[in-house]
Every structure is written in structure tokens, then in C-alpha cells.
Amino acid sequence: MNSWTLAYDGFDPRHEGLREALCTLGNGYFATRGAAPERGADGVHYPGTYVAGCYNRATSLVAGHEIENEDLVNAPNWLPLTFCAEGGRWLGEDGAAGSGQRLELDLRRGVLTRTFQVCDGEGRTTRVRQRRLVSMAEPHLAALETELTPQDWSGTLTVRSALDGAVANSGVERYRKLNDRHLVPQGTGGAAPEETWLRSETSASGIGIALAARTRVTRGPGAATAAVDSRPDWIGCDLEVAAVGGRPVTVEKVVALHTSRDKAISDHLTAARASLARAGDFAELLESHTLAWRHLWQECAVDVGDAEDQRILRLHLFHLLQTLSPHTADLDVGVPARGLHGEAYRGHVFWDELFVFPLLNLHLPETARALLRYRWRRLPRARAAARAQGLRGAMFPWQSGSDGREETQHLHLNPRSGHWLSDRSYLQRHVGIAIAYNVWEHYRVTGGTAFLANFGAELLLEIARTLADLAAYDHRLGRYVIRGVMGPDEYHDAYPDREEPGLDDNAYTNIMAVWVLQRALQALEELPEASRRRVSERIGLTAAETKRFGRIAARMRVPFHEDVISQFAGYEELAELDWAAYRARYGDIRRLDRILEAEGDSCNRYRASKQADVLMLFFLLSAEELRDILRRLGYEDRADDPGLIPRTVDHYLARTSHGSTLSAVVHAWVLSRTDRAASWSFLREALRSDIDDSQGGTTAEGIHLGAMAGTVDVLIRCYTGLSAHGGSLRLAPTLPPELPHLSFHLRYRGHRGVRLDISAAEARISVPPSPLPPLAVECRGRSASVAPGTSRVLPVR
Ligand code: BGC
């Protein structure tokens, strides 16, 4: 197995869901899990297809309450394909399962190959080789090629190819009690086998989905007869072929998928049929698809040498690019936390974009911008949410879907206790901080005041306003405070002795709110006068308000205890957890919240975090930036205390269960300058989180996109110290000893395919030929100007 291949030998029902998720193929418009085409959802297999941004609402009755959820819809299944030999059993039926299976995902070309053989119970053996792709070149097309070779028989081979609209959102065990029906059949038709089609509509959002398929025998004796069978939500055709022992028969299924939300269509069914009519055969589709991937890899490759790490990094980039591709730039979608790979978190958009954006800024800036537009379009909704709380500005939801309302569920199930519990995670107001941070980073990296003037500043200022209004002046403390919120650590949602939910003065929220207010003021300064006036007038931002921004940014409260930054006010009152005892009793205690709740206890009573919370500050801000903020807030002693950051890191490191895959990424980053061995070990952990399914069964329900992108980001920004400063790129590499060499490409200020080769001794920067001005680079105080078509080497020490 090379570092471009993910392969699985044999079949293991316990791991099938994981394999399906990791073998998902997609192109940013839609994705399909790597499920066996002959299987439906049967408790082991789960053939899900998800179209980016295609959501639907449904109401369910849970624990006596009517609740409404919005889900990323499992679209009709385009995969179904099976066969039988001489009237025997169909592949997939009892007694005709495949054996000796090998599944191979080619990461370079985005092709999933499956080989196996099947014996039909009557002594007839057929060898099968299937290849599939979801075209990166033509985002509405996918194809499945199946080669069937009778080993020891000759006779009629019947191939059944179908489109299945009778699917549900039943991929996540915990959600099984909820209404999982989102599709209303709208009919089937076509002239099989050259064309069959199926139309469906989501029940509440009314999104029309159309599939059109062509099934052809492209090698072998040719189809003798074809028969069609159809229902309103299913259409299949049978092709009969006179097969001869030892001679392969190849069947190609080419499929087009459109929805009523697509651009440049009249209606989705006509569009699907027209796309199909124009589509080439498998070989042609493979060629353009391979080329599209080649171009993507030329711009996004990362090379670390070590074959296994290399393979996982490619897998992570591969899934990132399949979820958020250049095609995404033309869509109205956000960053789905679990990719387009499964149904966990219902395809919702959280703050995880904070971990995904840096890579997109440096590789696919148009896609990054489109994701910010997703937020910007939902400003009216976020403004209404702020107003409903008596606040100005825009309050973005913790979980976002189609229209930007709060999609966080009211109740969630603890599978360990069977209890339905109130979900207060919507109190994570820091989601707005993540959006503002991304606006600023996008501006810094791409250098466009036009972006700020057009919509970036509006987003940033509206978020800043809400944060400012969340802050109240406490006369007793002589400081601004933010009460009743949650930080990123979801294990604390209330004080143990307080009725109402939320915590006061979450340090991450307060300090980052100050940072956002500072950036809002800076944006106003850096905008050309006319743009500043226009955006301020448009949103009604007054001088009194911006003055208040300045006052809050100078007097926000930051809680401390035992010479470390407190996660929130009153943190010091919490009990210490006996970590050793819990580890001994339960082994894996990542989901400590579920363990304690099932014991009738609660994480709220303990100094025990799910994930990095205070430490997020050191992830987003440099030590200098943090000290500067503390100093301006009047915490000079703390700012000048060189031990504050290391002590704070140690304190929370010892009290975090890493119940989110994001946690290892943040810890790898935070420890990179002080404990390189520990940093490397957290990075390895983050690298293994999906491939090994280290959160115990969650990857089958969708990949962890934030952690996947985060691992690549740790390499290319953290270990290299890469940052954008005005027009120049700054480097300050400190590669861990396990990483002797690192190369990657990026895009910066119009230069595409800039290559960086970094070792412990030097950094080489190569800029491809172009008519652009030279690229300014800085490494540990030395500057260079790299002309297009040349390279420069700078020492890193
Ligand atoms: C984490 C959140 C994250 C969400 C979606 C949760 O487990 O605690 O920080 O946003 O998953 O990935």
C-alpha cells in the first residue's frame, strides 16, 4: 500500500460504517459514502448521498415533547447495482455474498476500486471488479463501472441497475427515535437502459432532487434484452447478457444529479437528463476527473516523507477537498462539521470552520470567501437573534443549517444512561468570534480591502456589536463582564448550584471579544473613508458605540486563580476529579460527561474539560498578542509574568479528557514551542482520530472535518511559523525532530503553486513563473524578495 492508497482487505461488519465514511467520494457539490452498491441500509451498510446545503426540517415526538430538527438530507441512492448468474441468487441476497474483498481508495485520482468474488450457492463463481468516481471535473456526474467475469460457468447474466428514492436519514443510531423521512417521491421514468430517472422532493424545504442514469454493457457480448420495473420511489432495469466463462462483461452506470437549487437550469429533472445525455463514458469521465484532481493536488500537496503520516495527511486533504472544493465557491453552503460523509450533527455548521479556514485561505481563497458569504447572507437572521435578546449587531447560531436560525437540538440523548437531557450548547456565543476571526484572517492573507468594504467589515462589525452588548459593566468589579455563556468546553454549561444555565466570564470568550472589538476598530481605520462611512451608515453604527468598543477593550474582566487564567469566574470553586480512578474504572473517559451523568453526577461540579477552552487563546493568538491584550486591560503583572502561559497550559492539560477531536489539534499547536515531543504526540493522535476511529464509532457517522484540516494546518502554519504580514510571508520554523523535512504548496497574493521546502536548517521558497511582482518573504529577521520563476534559500536559525 503506498501513500496515495487507503486499502482494506476482507469484510468486517463491525468496521463497515467506518470504511464507508472514509471511502466516501465527493466533489464539494455532493458526496456518496463508499457503500457496496448491492446493499441498502441494513444495519451494517449505509449508502448515504448528501448534496451540500440540501436540508429539510421534520418534527418528532421525543420524551413527550414535539421537537423539530433540520437535517442534511440523505438523497436518493444512485448506486444500486447487482447481478445474478443464470437465474440464481442476486448478489447481496442470503447465500450470495461476496468474498475475498479488497477495497482500494486511490487518493490521487479519487477512484474507489472494489474487487471480490461471489459464489451464488449453486456452484457458480463470478469475479467482480468495480470502480467508481464522483466527478471533480463535472460536479453533477458520478459513475460506477462493474466488470463481471464468470469463472466457471456460461449462460445468462442479469445485471440490475436502479435508482432508489425510498431512503431515510437513519445513519445515526442515537437519532433513530426521530422522524427520519425527508423525501416525497415525485415519480420515475425514462427509456431504460439508456436513461432512467427518478424525482423526489424534500418534504418541508421543497427542494427537488433528480437523478438520471444510463446503464450500458460496454464490453462483452452486448445486452440482449432489457426490462424495466418502477414504482414512484424506485426504478430499476435488468440487462440480460449471454456471458461466456472467462470472458469479462463490463457494465457502466453513469449518473447525473441535480437539485432545484442549481444555477443555470430550467428545472432539475430536465437538467439531470441533459447532463446525462452530454456525459461521456466511464473512461472519458475518469480522464477529466483525474485531471481535475491533478490540478487540485498540484496546489494543495503536502509532503512529510514518512509514508504512513503522508498517507493520512493525504486522506485528510482528500476529504477536505471533497467537502469544500473549488465547486463550493459557487454554492451557498457552510462548513459541515462532519463533512458530506454521514449524518452525525445533521450536517450542521458549527465553529469548526475556524480549523478549516486557514488552509482554504492559502489554497482555495475563493472557496473560503464563499463560506464567509454563507454567513453574510444569514446576517438578517443573526440580527434578529441578537434583537430577540435585546442586543444590537448579529448573533450567529451555535448550529447553523439552511436559513441561519439556531439549529441546536433542545434535547440530546445520553446513550449510556438512556436519558434525554437539555442541550444548552447554544450558549456558545463564541461562534461569532470564530466567524470574525476568519473574516480578519481572510483579509490579512488575501489583502483585499474590497472584500472588507463589500461584506467582510459588515460581518465583523455586527459580530463586534453583539459582543459589546453582551458585555455589561459591573460597578463592584469596575470591569465589563459577560454572563451566562458557554466556552468551547461543552462539559460545563452551568454552575453546580445555580438554576439558570451558562457561566460568567469565560476567559476565551472575554479575551477574544476584546480582540474582535480591536479588529473592528482597526477595520474602520483601514477602510477607505467612503467605504467606512457607507458601512457605518448602512448598519447604523454610531461614534458612541465605537467609543464603547474601545472602553470594553480596555476594561474587560479576565478571571484568574492559582496564578493561571481561569476557564470562567468561579472555576476555582470546582472539585478536582479523581482522573486515575475514572480511568481505572472506565478505561476510555473521553466522554466523561456521559459517564458522570449516568452516575447521577455532572461535569459541572469538576475541574474537568472536554476540550481546549482557555488554551484556544494560545491557539489563535501569539504570546505577544495575548500579553498585549492583558496589558491594555490593566493586567500588567499577569502580562509580564513569563510563567503565566506555561502554568496555564499545564493546568488544563492535566484536566482535559479530549472528548472532541479538535482538542488534540489545539494541544499539538499550543505545545509546539514548549514541548515538541508532546506536540508531536498530539498531532499523531489527531492524525489517527478518523482512520482509527479513536472516538469509538463516531467516524462511521461522518468524518471530523475540523480535525482533518487542523492536522494539515499544524504542519503548514504552526511548525513553520507561517503567517501573512502585509504583502509578505513570514516564516519561523521549529520542526519537531520526527519531521526532518516538510514541503508544501500554497497560493499567496495571486502567486499560485508557491512551493516551500523546509528542513531543520533552511527554507527554500520557489515561486512559479508569472508576470506578478516578486514575493516578499521573511525568515527570522532575514528578508528576501523572490522573483517569479526563481527560488531563494533562507537559513531558519
Ligand atoms: C465539539 C464542538 C464541535 C462539534 C462539531 C463537538 O463535539 O465539542 O467543539 O464544534 O463537536 O464538530
UniProtKB/TrEMBL annotation:
Annotated ranges, domain Glycoside hydrolase family 65 central catalytic: 314-712
- Give yes or no: UniProt keyword DNA-binding: no
Q: Which domain of life is it from?
A: Bacteria
Keyword Glycosyltransferase appears in the UniProt entry: yes
Gene3D superfamilies hit by this protein? 1.50.10.10, Glycoside hydrolase, family 65, N-terminal domain (2.70.98.40), Maltose phosphorylase, domain 3 (2.60.420.10)
Task: Recite the UniProt keywords alphabetically.
Answer: Glycosidase, Glycosyltransferase, Hydrolase, Transferase
Report domain Glycoside hydrolase family 65 C-terminal positions: 723-784
InterPro entries, per database record: 6-hairpin_glycosidase_sf, 6hp_glycosidase-like_sf, Gal_mutarotase_sf_dom, GH65_N, Glyco_hydro_65_C, Glyco_hydro_65_M, Glyco_hydro_65_N, Malt_Pase/Glycosyl_Hdrlase
Domain (Glycoside hydrolase family 65 N-terminal) ranges: 8-261
One of the record's GO molecular function terms: hydrolase activity
The text of the family note is: Belongs to the glycosyl hydrolase 65 family.
Entry protein name: Glycoside hydrolase family 65 protein
